[in-house]
Amino acid sequence: MAARNGGPEHYRPFVQAYGPYIYKTVYAVLHSPHDAEDVTQEALLQIYRSLPSYRMDGLKTWITRIAVNKAIDFKRSRARRPEELVEREAVDRQSADLQADGMLAAAPRPAAEAEAIRREELRHVQAMVNELPDNYRGVVTAFYMEEKSYEQIAAETGLERKSVESKLYRARGWMKRHWRKEDFE
């Protein structure tokens, strides 16, 4: 692959070939044209930076995984910043109104492959989370899988906010000691 061994000028054909696919994949997760464009750029940058470590097998699966992970990370970060979300929703509503009026092209449909990969990754992650000790599993599931805030978890479990933070901190330490990066590839 020329993009792997060459400089940025060799990456342009890759972007032209896979950019639309990555956009569709990201859009399937975010459902926002504006956010999908931003995250697609981030995913393409991440792919470019990661090319030296790419093992030359399953290119489409590899780039899909990067794109889906970038989209999920973006979605999580947006959930933790509700004030920006309100502004973004207004922009998305305007875009949806323009689409309804036929002024914008219809948004791409989610790729079946991306959805299948996402579901499989979620099943795998859930299986890994189920291996956590009982005292960590609940807060990890609530925080990472259900995307709840520390306050929500504290209210639902009857714990103090600091206790929730502490459990998550210890759970992350446990995961670092017991899980390998390869377990998620």
UniProtKB/TrEMBL annotation:
It comes from the Bacteria. InterPro entries: RNA_pol_sigma-70-like, RNA_pol_sigma-70_dom, RNA_pol_sigma70_ECF_CS, RNA_pol_sigma70_r2, RNA_pol_sigma70_r4_t2, RNA_pol_sigma_r2, RNA_pol_sigma_r3/r4-like, WH-like_DNA-bd_sf. The keyword DNA-binding applies. CDD domains: Sigma70_r4. Coiled coil: none annotated. Keywords: DNA-binding, Sigma factor, Transcription, Transcription regulation. It holds the Pfam family Sigma70_r2. Residues 125-173 form the RNA polymerase sigma factor 70 region 4 type domain. Residues 14-81 form the RNA polymerase sigma-70 region domain. Signal peptide: none annotated. GO terms for molecular function: DNA binding; sigma factor activity. GO terms for biological process: DNA-templated transcription initiation; response to stress. Belongs to the sigma-70 factor family. ECF subfamily. This is RNA polymerase sigma factor. It comes from Paenibacillus soyae.
